[in-house]
Amino acid sequence: MSEKTLTRMDLSEAVFRAVGLSRNESAQLVESVLQHMSDALAEGEMVKISSFGTFSVRAKTARVGRNPKTGDEVPISPRRVLTFRPSQLMKARVANGKKR
Amino acid sequence: MIRSELIQKIADENPHLTQRHVERIVNTVFEEIIEALAKGDRVELRGFGAFSVKSREARVGRNPRTGESVQVDDKKVPFFKTGKLLRDRLNTK
């Protein structure tokens, strides 16, 4: 089982192969996809990509945390976190992927 | 924002590309990520986040309606961890 890590470069390469654009422009387009998604999320907007999944921003309230090393109590300020819910299609493909 | 709105934004910024092209570009990005995860690979997009596959062990589940126990097989599930830059952006206003 060879576990690889793909990066922007691999996505750009896939776009380059799928469409007849230059490598440079393909890379810029991949970047722009990520940029638009990040911008929407930073605005607190939900990003819903059909058959891929949904990114949503949740607000968490302040709570008291604890430093696990020292046991000291530390206040954790309210914050916004991002959660990703994969689509049924992604779940199914990932679940079946390795059984092939 | 949904897929079609994302495609529209990128099409607006790239008037030299046809709508069909932009659609194919955006779809390729998402398809490539799913493909990688289906193979058990990771996809790391610095600043945005990383997609990976986690293993869930087999367990005995319960049908919440009937209370019957059911065997749930081990399985692979997709997982996303938000990148540092994006996490910080969510919390700076």
Automatic annotation (TrEMBL), chain A:
It comes from the Bacteria. One of its GO terms (molecular function) is DNA binding. PROSITE patterns: HISTONE_LIKE (PS00045). One of its GO terms (biological process) is positive regulation of metabolic process. Heterodimer of an alpha and a beta chain. NCBIfam families: himA, PRK00285.1. This is Integration host factor subunit alpha. It comes from Neogemmobacter tilapiae.
TrEMBL record, chain B:
Keywords: DNA recombination, DNA-binding, Transcription, Transcription regulation, Translation regulation. PROSITE patterns: HISTONE_LIKE (PS00045). GO terms for cellular component: chromosome; cytosol. The keyword Lipoprotein does not apply. GO terms for molecular function: DNA binding; structural constituent of chromatin. Belongs to the bacterial histone-like protein family. HAMAP family: IHF_beta (MF_00381). PANTHER family: DNA-BINDING PROTEIN HU, INTEGRATION HOST FACTOR SUBUNIT BETA. This is Integration host factor subunit beta. It comes from Neogemmobacter tilapiae.
